[in-house]
Write a structure and sequence with these properties.
Helices cover 31% and strands 24% of the residues. The protein is an alpha+beta fold. It has two domains: 4-185 and 338-393, FAD/NAD(P)-binding domain (3-Layer(bba) Sandwich); 190-330, Elongation Factor Tu (Ef-tu), domain 3. Helix 1 runs parallel beside helix 12.
Length: 401
Amino acid sequence: MNQIYDVIVLGLGAAGLFALANLDKGINALGIEKNAAVGRKLLLTGGGRCNLTNTDNVKEMVKAYTDPSFVRPIIYGFNNLKTIDYFAQNGLELVDQNGKIYPKTERSSTVVSFFRARIAKKGHRIVYNETIHDIMRDEDHLTLVGSDRKYKCRSLIVATGGASYPQTGSDGALISKCFEIAKFEAGLCSINISEEKFVKLNGLTIDVMIKYQKRSFFGSLLFAGSALTGPVIMNLSNYVQSNDYFSVDFLPNISNEAIKALLLEKTMQHPKRRFKTAAHEVLNLPDSFINALCNQLDLLDVTLANLKSKDLNKFIDALKACKLKVKSKGALSKATVTIGGIKTTDIDNKTMQLKADDRVYVVGEAVELVGACGGYNLQFAFSSAFRAVEHLNGEKKVVSK
């Protein structure tokens, strides 16, 4: 007869590793990993440097997620400062780089090794190269159906991730089969736009502000042919759909009136100078970008003296409120995170238990929730796993040592 485990942690990415590493020694726990090694996707995070979390004010931090009301008690229960303390107190040296927290080595493999050591110290076993095809629910236990055998447990932590980067083992197939999910789509990805006016600016980066509905996004925008990317676009991608419009302000720190005054002053000083040259000098934006805007507005050969007031206003509008249309988003298979997953409405955010079956806990990217770039998604992985472990360990405490 198969052994019945107290807890099985299914999937050993960031959330699953944290959970298994912090279940008490007295709990008979098993980790099941699809790959030959744990933490495959974790190794890719932060460009391989592993941006664990950040130093944001916790009240502001929750606003960086797609469902702030759901995530608030989860983040408050194990916030970024507690995460930093957890790693530091347990021997992982950290470094703060402009508010982003990395392991001192700046290598994701250091974090994976940290978790593996803590799991070994707890005595919890890991099964590798095991694909779970189904989850069967009996009255007194859950049965996980593997390729060649079955695993039984009283409680299950689902940490299988989403559907992005399937080569890391997270393809969303199991949770799609066994749970009601919100549709998978790409998050923190590039955006293809319908307009072609910026195609020739490939590789150019500008700091911008983007407005979409009632949200504002600040950060670097990178032109990539017919696509846009960079942190500000990746954050925007968590909210937009095909055919949506958004507005870009390419000079967020200067008002429309100030821009007009600067250009009019230049007109008085150098009336024969070409407008595009004066705009570059005054606004300190790249020549190629200014030329693209001027080409669009037929202003390439216009001098300051011949510049019409209506054309100046059109230029400023194109600079401060450039309206763009989403043609499509980047491929889910290459997205940094997955939008969708097990619905937040089906999860108790005090414990991460399924409301319909309190033996099942859902953590990390398997949850229908994503955060912005900059350590927010790993923070949610750790915070949600903490919630589950705290409940399973049976007492209110910071994570067990």
